[in-house]
Automatic annotation (TrEMBL):
Location of the region described as Disordered in the Swiss-Prot/TrEMBL record: 1-26
SUPFAM superfamilies reported in the protein's UniProt record: Trypsin-like serine proteases
Protein family (similarity comment): Belongs to the peptidase S1 family. CLIP subfamily.
GO terms of molecular function: serine-type endopeptidase activity
Any one GO biological process: proteolysis
UniProt keyword annotation of Glycoprotein present: yes
InterPro entries listed in its UniProt record: Peptidase_S1_PA, Peptidase_S1_PA_chymotrypsin, Trypsin_dom
Pfam families reported for this sequence: Trypsin
The keyword Glycoprotein is annotated on this UniProt entry: yes
Species per Swiss-Prot/TrEMBL record: Carassius auratus (Goldfish)
Keywords, comma-separated and alphabetical: Disulfide bond, Glycoprotein, Hydrolase, Membrane, Protease, Transmembrane
UniProt protein name: Transmembrane protease serine 3 isoform X4
Recorded superkingdom: Eukaryota
């Protein structure tokens, strides 16, 4: 991860909304169709047009996703052409299956979501550092085995509406994508940390989907 540039996935026909579509809503509105989505890489401000957009070939939802409980809240987006890496666009590592990270480690979150509850999406990307929290601290929040939580118990920086799917990245020998923003009861409020889908727990599923895609190409 270099600088402050990120990857954005958004509808080609942008709507004013503060959060992402759930799977059922996406299907109802037709937003599960890859042609209606575009990927922008290496940007810090929301694009005003479709210039430089990368076309989406496929969206892969987890078969066991349950929106009410937010179980298995993860999806993969396959783009038609590979990304070109440069000073603004670089890959990030996935953790190994079952790999854990120390409680209290400060990690980076980022997104174009609202900055207050019920607010509008941001034009420019916001970043913050938040500590990883133990499952003991986050017990009672409805976590599943695929969840981890991060944030300040006393309140402060955290994810908000519209940040869902954004990265929770931790730095060791390099940057690792530890989680993807799943949900939060509020925006950085006391005793209400952000909940993330653990990429370590999801690693086997991610690898399986990528292998399926490779097999289909041969």
């Amino acid at each position: 991860m270099r600088g402050e540039s990120r990857v954005m996935l958004r509808p080609r026909q942008q709507e004013r909304r503060s959060g992402p579509f759930q799977k059922e809503e996406a299907v109802r509105r037709g937003y599960d169709q890859p042609l209606l989505w575009a990927v922008h890489a290496g940007i810090t401000d929301q694009p005003l047009s479709g210039s430089g957009a990368l076309s989406v070939e496929k969206i892969i939802y987890h078969a066991n996703y349950r929106p009410r409980e937010m179980h298995y809240n993860i999806a993969l987006v396959k783009i038609k052409l590979p990304l070109s890496f440069n000073d603004q666009v670089a890959p990030i590592c996935l953790p190994s299956y079952g790999e854990s990270f120390e409680d209290g480690q400060m990690c980076l979150i980022s997104g174009w979501g609202a900055t207050v509850d019920g607010g509008e999406a941001s034009v420019s990307i916001h970043t913050a550092r938040v500590p990883l929290l133990s499952s003991r601290v986050c017990c009672g929040l409805g976590l599943t085995p695929w969840n981890i939580c991060a944030g300040f118990s006393e309140g402060g920086a955290g994810t908000c509406q519209g940040d869902n799917g954004g990265p929770l990245a931790c730095q060791g020998s390099g940057w690792t994508l530890v989680g993807a923003a799943s949900w939060a009861e509020s925006c950085g409020q006391k005793n209400k940390p952000g909940i993330y889908t653990s990429t370590s727990k999801a690693f086997a599923w991610i690898q399986q989907q990528m292998e399926k895609e490779e097999q289909q190409q041969h």
